[in-house]
Amino acid sequence: MATPRKSLLNPLMKSRKRLAETTMRELFAADPNRFKTFSAKAGELLLDYSKNRIDEKAMAALFELARAAGVEERRDAMWKGEHINITEDRAVQHMALRYMGDKKVVVDGKDVMPEVRGVLAAMKGFSDAVRDGSIKGSSGDSFTDVVNIGIGGSDLGPAMVTLALAPYTRADLRAHYVSNVDGAHIHDVLRGLDPKRTMFIVASKTFTTDETMTNAATARAWIASALGEAAVPDHFAALSTNLTACAGFGIKSDRIFGFWDWVGGRYSVWSAIGLPVAIAVGYDNFEAFLKGAYDMDQHFLKTKLEKNLPVIMGVLGVWYRNAWGFSTHAVLPYDQRLSRFAAYLQQQDMESNGKSVSLSGKPVDYNTGPIIWGEPGTNGQHAFYQLIHQGTDVIPVDFLIAAQPHEQLPPHHDKLVANVLAQSEALMLGKTKDEVVAELSAQGLDKARIKELTPHKMFPGNRPSNTLLYPKLTPERLGSLVALYEHKVFVQGTIWGVNSYDQWGVELGKQLAKALLPKVQGTEKATAHDSSTRGLVEAYLKLRG
Ligand code: F6P
């Protein structure tokens, strides 16, 4: 059934028709100012989006689409605390968590800033005390290892940030992350640790998530068996909106750090969920991370759409998804420390916009969120870039690169930069038949061999990419980058008319896993299940012995 959104998206097809008749190579040749026209800055973050299948008319149509879809109005409504998460009847106010202005931020008639700042102050006090050793374990030893137990938003954000900010961490205070219910995960993390010097942080917005509760129980038993039951409170802290359940687990009240239902799990790294980051890199660096996000929020809230980085990236994603039908989007940081960035963005983007029902509850008849994936360069180059260059799918790419490395190890960084620039250039230019033939002739190959090899060595080119360039991967810059992608997801969700802030799609699997547990434990028969599930349960029970 047609929805009004489709009529918004349809005008893009005119631009697509025009651009399908040309190539980026031609567009660059025709316009020496293309980089200038199609690049924009937010603070020190430069976005080059000139290597896209766009012209000024197409961009104008895309900004018009964003306006017609109400991106500005909905952005302002979000910031005003309106319940834009309609299915859970909640505000979406993660921007308050990093707000550094002096105005009130109101949610449900109340200024939330005093509570936000109160929790941040408690996080500062606690992280400082763990770092300087004044908070000790039950045996009087200071902590050397902090293990965060959480999953999804209670894991991916802090784990990604801790890794990204490795230059700001201390060798004598390590942060570990346990998420999977697979016992191998916690086993392998605990194997090298000393219970006397290990603190656990149980991170769960709901404090009911099965994986997290199972891992927390295992960690609790590990401490109790090594140090005695009485040691448990000294070795645990909790981050949650469910303060009662934290207390029920036996966590001391001054070690429970709260947040609020208007913070979505995948938008929670700025809240108490960031505590392991504050411990690992120090509170000042955590605050700088918040500051970078605040700067991006101000850019998003105040900059006109045509110069607004999250809007530009958002509409380009819509362009490729809806006008060109590309189904995946790769995020390829040329930064080893951003090796969990794509995994983090998978939740942020795919849990947000992986929806096929519009806000009004009607099925959409256009594509919504793409598959997000990626690995750091240059590793990806030797793995999956073959398909990006010569495969049958076109995959729009975001490249990320810092101008300055943290290490002074020439020539590593220059090589890294040369590689990222080479990739976007190669994707855009491709290699024509004439170029291949000239190259093979110069190598002295005979005509027959040239004919045989040419189709294999041609690159179609015209493959789109954005490049984000920033001075250095500091806490501040990382905060800006993460907030940039958050707002990009918002822009796209608004254009697609979906609720980016619920995640009902994860519920069915949870329900069925609960129902299947007694069957795989052998205490109930699997008779009510389909023949595949029944067959697998029976085979499993035989195999496990
Ligand atoms: O995957 C579903 C989800 O609800 C995520 O949105 C959330 O980040 C994750 O589970 C963990 O939830 P919690 O923090 O409540 O344990």
From TrEMBL:
Its main location: cytoplasm. Keywords: Cytoplasm, Gluconeogenesis, Glycolysis, Isomerase. It comes from the Bacteria. It is an enzyme of class 5 (isomerase). GO terms for cellular component: cytosol. Belongs to the GPI family. Catalyzes the reversible isomerization of glucose-6-phosphate to fructose-6-phosphate. This is Glucose-6-phosphate isomerase. It comes from Devosia insulae DS-56. The gene is pgi.
